[in-house]
Specification:
ABC_transporter_ATP-binding; nucleotide-binding; about 300 residues; ATP-binding; alpha/beta
């Protein structure tokens, strides 16, 4: 099996007239990984994916998928499954007919029954698309994207409109695909999904990356927080604690375990109860909120 990256983007620029949607973007997606491409609205995610998927030409730069230009649709497209934010299925086709059509268009082989079973739409096989609920349409979108077990799958907001059980079933199916060797590119506004599922994340803002790496690498860019309140008459807290407007104290730290232990030791030595004590590691949404202050990656 080739060790070359499935997706290789080098110095990608996408412009619309004078507007620069993507500027000097470079990244790779390795075989078998789940890569999350995240960003603020208008960050350039859609333009980037349109180029990688072969729907749009780059203004400049080089993009390779399986070592080929994504514009070579005859070579690349049969190996790629795409779940868009909104389906373009004919409302008059049935669920089964929609899946068969995708099979013919992609040239991949599979069975309608298997794919319907993955997304729990077997009972809806002869139902017209127009009669499906929003959640059922999303499950159909996913079914057509994974028809034939493609090597590379793009999931654009895959769980929007799904209930908890359907979300769990979708992610179970994604893990099975990964176990079979599929590579997944995810975009989502549900940051907890990216934090739980992604091997690596590219975080875009104003057309370029602000951060790229594993969840651990991204969350290490910001301090964790310890917060607590002191009873009346308590001695002054440790020097690292800063008073906040609500009367409590906060410690920002890049070494949560060490600083929390020091605080607890101080409280024990001074017989002080730490009211409302909380110690929260940095989360991906913290990194996302701080994106405006992060410099672009060179």
């Amino acid at each position: 099996m080739s060790t070359a990256p499935v997706i290789d983007v080098d110095a990608l620029h996408v412009t619309y007239g004078d507007f620069h949607a993507v500027t000097d973007l470079s990244f790779q997606v390795e075989r078998g990984e789940l890569y999350a491409l995240l960003g603020t609205n208008g960050a350039g995610k859609t333009s980037t994916l349109e180029v990688v998927e072969g729907h749009r030409a780059a203004s400049s730069g080089t993009v390779r998928v399986f070592g080929e230009s994504p514009s070579d649709r005859r070579t690349v497209r049969p190996r790629m499954g795409i779940m868009l934010q909104e389906s373009g299925f004919s409302p008059d086709l049935t669920v089964a007919e929609s899946i068969r059509l995708i099979g013919r268009l992609t040239g991949r082989t599979d069975t309608v029954d298997r794919v319907l079973g993955i997304v729990d739409l077997t009972r809806k096989a002869e139902t017209r698309v127009a009669q499906l609920s929003g959640g059922e349409k999303r499950r159909l979108d996913f079914a057509t994207a994974v028809y034939g077990r493609p090597e590379l799958i793009f999931l654009d907001e895959p769980t929007t409109g799904l209930d908890i059980q359907s979300r769990d079933a979708l992610w179970d199916a994604v893990e099975e695909l990964r176990a079979d060797g599929s590579t997944i590119v995810l975009t989502t506004h549900y940051l907890e999904e990216a934090q739980q599922r992604a091997d690596r994340i590219g975080l875009m803002h104003h057309g370029t990356f602000r951060h790229q790496g594993t969840v651990a690498e991204l969350t290490r860019t910001l301090p964790a927080a310890i917060q607590f309140s002191l009873p009346a008459g308590a001695p002054a807290p440790p020097v690292s604690a800063v008073a906040v407007p609500d009367g409590s104290y906060q410690i920002e730290t890049f070494d949560l375990q060490t600083d929390l232990k020091q605080l607890l030791d101080w409280a024990h030595d001074h017989a002080v109860d730490l009211h409302g004590l909380s110690a929260a590691p940095t989360r991906l949404d913290d990194v996302f909120r701080a994106i405006d202050t992060a410099p672009a990656l060179s």
